[in-house]
Amino acid sequence: MDYLSNGIIEIAIARKGAELQSMRRVTSPAEYLWQGDASYWDRRAPILFPNVGRVWNNVAQIEGRRYDLQQHGFLRDMIFDKVIDEDRHLAFAAHSNDESKQLWPFDFEVRIDYTLLRNTLTVGWSVTNRDTRTMPFQIGAHPGFNYPDFNAADDVHGFLSFDTDGPLASTVIVPGGYAGKETFDVPIPADGLLPLTNNTFDCDTIVDATGRVHRVTLHDKNGRPHITVLHTMPIIALWSPNGGCAPFMCIEPWHGCCDEAGYEGEFCNRSFVEHVEPGQTWSTSYEIIME
Question: How many CA atoms within 13 Å lie on the side-chain side of 22?
Answer without folding.
Answer: 17
